[in-house]
Design a protein that fits this description.
Distance between the termini: 27 Å
CATH topology: Alpha-D-Glucose-1,6-Bisphosphate, Chain A, domain 4
CATH architecture: 2-Layer Sandwich
Strand order of the largest sheet: 1-7-6-5-4-3-2
Number of strands: 7
Radius of gyration: 15 Å
Number of domains: 1
Largest sheet: 7 strands, antiparallel
CATH superfamily: START domain
CATH class: Alpha Beta
Order of helices and strands: EHHEEEEEEH
Strand content: 25-35%
């Protein structure tokens, strides 16, 4: 996984997944499949204006609106955290994920922009979840999410 930085309000991540783009795409938009690698309850309405919501835990919930969906190749949605504690509020940033298939493998490129704060923390989160996506999209079991299953005093 590569982790180049674009500037102080955005981040880029890439990972190659040994699965066709159509398979990886399903794991990005199908709520049941999304829960195999990120979140315990997810909503993704794959059309412009549709809802994006991912409940990592009952207290850690991301949300936004879908901006663009191109079958098997691209999704764009706004992103932020519910509650008032995180400065990256619901809909205040943008996530763009593109898929490039080559010989049955897929290069996943993620660009998270318009972050008002916590760029490094979001980068660490995406590193964690993209690695879990790679496991799930290739038929593996990503197992319990350590972020979602942290002890209450962590």
């Amino acid at each position: 996984m590569t982790t180049p930085k674009a500037d102080t309000t955005s981040l880029t991540r890439q990972i190659s997944i040994d699965a066709p783009a159509a398979t990886v795409f399903k794991y990005l938009i199908d709520p049941e499949l999304m829960c195999t690698w990120m979140g315990q309850a997810c909503v993704f309405e794959p059309f412009e204006g549709g809802e994006y919501r991912c409940e990592i835990t009952e207290n850690i919930v991301a949300g936004g609106k879908v901006i663009e969906v191109v079958q098997d190749s691209k999704i764009v949605y706004t992103f932020g955290w519910e509650g008032g504690e995180n400065p990256v509020t619901v809909g205040s940033s943008k996530v763009e994920i593109t898929l490039e298939e080559n010989d049955g493998s897929t290069l996943v490129k993620l660009f998270h922009s318009e972050l008002v704060a916590a760029v490094e923390e979001h980068g660490g989160g995406w590193d964690h979840y993209l690695a879990r996506l790679a496991i799930a999209a290739t038929g593996g079991d990503a197992g319990p999410d350590p972020i979602a299953n942290q002890p209450a005093d962590a």
